[in-house]
Amino acid sequence: MRLVTVTFLLLLSMSAVVRAEIKIVTSIKPLALLINDIGGEFVQVTTLVPNAGSIHHYSMRVSDRVAVEQADMLVVVGAGLEPFSNKLSGLKNTYLLSMDQLEGIETFLVTNEGNHSHGHVGTIDPHLWLSPANSAQLARALSHQLGERLPNKKTYFEQRLQIFLQAKDHILKDNSIPNHRPYFAYHNAFAYLLTAYGIELQGVLTNVNESRLGMRSLYQVKRAVQEAPGACVLVQHSARQMSEKILGEIKYAEIDVLADRQEYNAYSDYLAAMLNAINDC
Length: 281
What we know:
By secondary structure, the chain is of the alpha/beta class. The protein has 9 helices and 7 strands, in the order H-E-H-E-H-E-E-H-H-E-H-H-E-H-E-H.
């Protein structure tokens, strides 16, 4: 697996460093990793939400607004994840690429069963980037848009797209998640990460806006986890302590949801780290 990542990085270094020709602003670091993978030295990427920041509590600064207005492209997840994007509808020169609007994006809806994350019932859970298939769709759309803006580099972006897709497929193959184990989660966003293996979550601890379930529902989830042999609970770092208080000392997989717990050289590193955490659970 490490050889695949190294090979991927070597292949991406295909030409001398040149001045970036396309300025792109994006909301979160996972998208920034993907943009750099496809755009290489021809893009300059600015990420709005800082490391250890919260996308749900992020407030746009004046400097962020200026960066967006001066950018050629704004890349967001959509589906209500970035409420500040609603204030940018008046931008004239910045092209908006929203992940939730792409054809073929797989989504999970917020439901009444407590098996959901953010938003109102019937809306899309916005953690779309955790799905490898969704990230591939964004990479394809980005490669196309960059090729439209720099027609003389279209082949370059297409080649980087193919390298990206091959690296993703290798990572998924090399990290074959056991589908016989029962998986639970802090919230349903992690269903996007497991869908590549046809795995469904057996239960979650939080519902709309990450508020806790009722005591009866929490007891049912706790009992289900404790009675499931080899159960693994997927959590983000900030929710580990809370989950342990509710469920006790069991096996956890810490998922770096916003790619801010360590440094990654490429999207494939980020994906591999999340899958490794599950495998080590």
